[in-house]
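Quarterly update from the structural biology core.
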Amino acid sequence: MDAQLFLLCVLTFVIHLIGALAYAVRIAGVRTRRIAMSFALFNVLVLLSRTSNAFQGPFLSKRIETNLTAGTGGHLLADFQWLMASASLAALVGALAIPTAQRLFTRAVAHFQVHRSVPKLLMHAFAKGGLSYVRQSAALPSPSHLKGLKQKIDVPVRVIVMNVLAQALLTVGVFASLYAGYLAPDLRVTASQLSSVINGVATILLFVLIDPSLSIMTDDVMEGRVSEPAFRRAVIWFAGSRVAGTVLAQALLVPAAMAIAQLARMIP
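Predicted structure, tokenized:
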């Protein structure tokens, strides 16, 4: 692995780690009864994710262009597999970090309620006291929570399965379109634009079928119709399905790239 690929893996890790931590934000919002505020503070991390995404695309495109020009693109498939392995690792780390992140977000909400300033919150986070609290908050998922996964959850199994598929499509979408550009170099610009087709299907699944189920359950917890332990079990299932989706993306990379290349040829 060269330095450029390592940097791309780091950017991919950051993007998917922050996405996985969104589940911890929901738990923190339920605990503090400040869901809107929790997501508002989470948007600070989203800015970091989008910045990473902004750099990842051009760097990866340039890597493909360089290899096409030099005729040394035989290792690109392995490169994409490394990148998706980074996404899977990030999803797994994010799932394991949910207890820690939930405590940190809860503390951040409490601090923001007093000072009402994001810059002050960031200064506190990187101060000695903030870093000390990070160490104190570090914790792995409780064994009792893992045992509770055997109990019934209030989310339909089909929603969990659809989340696996949606996360797989989101993970593979851009990578497959760029790899399709390598498979069909004369149509690589068209192929790169077709990533929106895959991401569009995933987005429809997320915003029409998946997110509403979790949002309704969040509101039910706030109103006392669903217990917090049941909600945490559902969140763990969603986090686990995200990990499974990134793993499934590995198997979808080549078929998706070939399909995108074929679709690019079919466009009149």
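DSSP finds twelve helices and no strands in the chain.
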